[in-house]
Amino acid sequence: MGFAFNEIEETIRMVQSEKLDIRTITMGISLRDCTGNSYEEISNKIYDKITKKAENLVKVANDLEAEFGIPIVNKRISVTPIAIVADKLKSKEEFVNVAKTLDAAAKAVGVNFIGGYSALVHKGFTDGDLHLIDSIPEALAATERVCSSVNVATTKAGINMDAVAIMGKIVKKTAMLTKENDGIGAAKLVVFCNAPEDNPFMAGAFHGIGEGECVINVGVSGPGVVFAALSKLDNQADFGQISETIKKTSFKITRAGELIGRLAAKRLNTSFGILDLSLAPTPEIGDSIANILEAMGLSKCGTHGTTAALALLNDAVKKGGVMASSYVGGLSGAFIPVSEDSGMISAVEAGAISLEKLEAMTCVCSVGLDMIAIPGDTPEETISAIIADEMAIGMINKKTTAVRVIPAPGKKVGDHIEFGGLLGHAPIMKVNNFSSEIFVKRGGRIPAPLHSLNN
């Protein structure tokens, strides 16, 4: 694929003035050949393979950043779901030791996160799945760079409500075990419906069982670029013009990601996987999804019209991106994390946006309820019910949805949590106080919708 000089020149301008960056280069590594009968055997194989495959990942990314002047914010690794690799292990303590090995390998090669401490339980559990899920709170408390995800629903299988009930407890316990840092462990844990196998973004990345031995997946980021483009339109521009502007901008952003991804794969002697063209915000002013929606004419993100504006944005981003790359994958759309988006934080603080409105917005965006801080005394059944609602949206709409909520220990509505860096900070949001306990404790599986039989 050739890239014209004027494309590179324009990319440099977007980097300098509009906060364009490559959010992550993520190396996906298969650990299917790292199984064994003891955690020592499994851990040794995992450490050796990760440190060998990814030994030059950070160097190559840094070299590309220097050559092209495009910031590459994160260098990451995703691996085969550990519940599959370590399925023979018999206790959560052994799984925690494997998590520590992942952390050590990530530190050795210099990446900031490693994803794949994961289980796929949308239809049922193996013993290994249950041991891994049980170990998540201790594993995330004992590690710095490990991220975890659990897929509890799909359009084809329905929703595993037993898993949903368990995950409410796991999220709450994970937050409690990291209470000295506002429950940051829960910020590294995602519950999915229809989890993609090639997602480069954390905390939900894992290397799917349908993937090859080793691939490079790239996640771009360009809310600031899209906001700058829309800011040049006057109030007379109609929605067709807005959509066209976003499409053209998304095309340019995607081309930059494609260039970096293919060069990284070539230099690392591996395959280029996909480009995830999700608009991923940061806490920096001007790099916000909420600001984009407000640029369309909303006085504050969350007011009436917000869901329609987000639908337009998400669709236009995808239309522009697929024209720029033949290998678009992952999540690809617009993220609406609260703590990582300065505009979203402002909207919550102003009372313009609620948990219920965020849930409605997830019907049309690329992921789900993301990086939302809730009171630390929120019952685990309520957390499970929040997860169940979001899983239902994904199941019925045949899309990926996810929940990453932080029940901040000791915090109440009106307080704040502070993580720093890309994880940002967030106000504690109000949760509906009416109980969902009986509903959650019914267990079993919510059947798949009729359109799951499409074949």
Automatic annotation (TrEMBL):
Pfam families linked to this entry: DUF711
InterPro entries, per database record: UPF0210
Superkingdom as given in the UniProt entry: Bacteria
Gene3D superfamilies: 3.20.70.20
Assembly with partners or alone: Homodimer.
UniProt similarity note: Belongs to the UPF0210 family.
Alphabetized NCBIfam families for the sequence: PRK05313.1
HAMAP family referenced in this protein's UniProt entry, alphabetically: UPF0210
Name of the molecule in the record: UPF0210 protein ACETAC_01620
Species of origin: Aceticella autotrophica
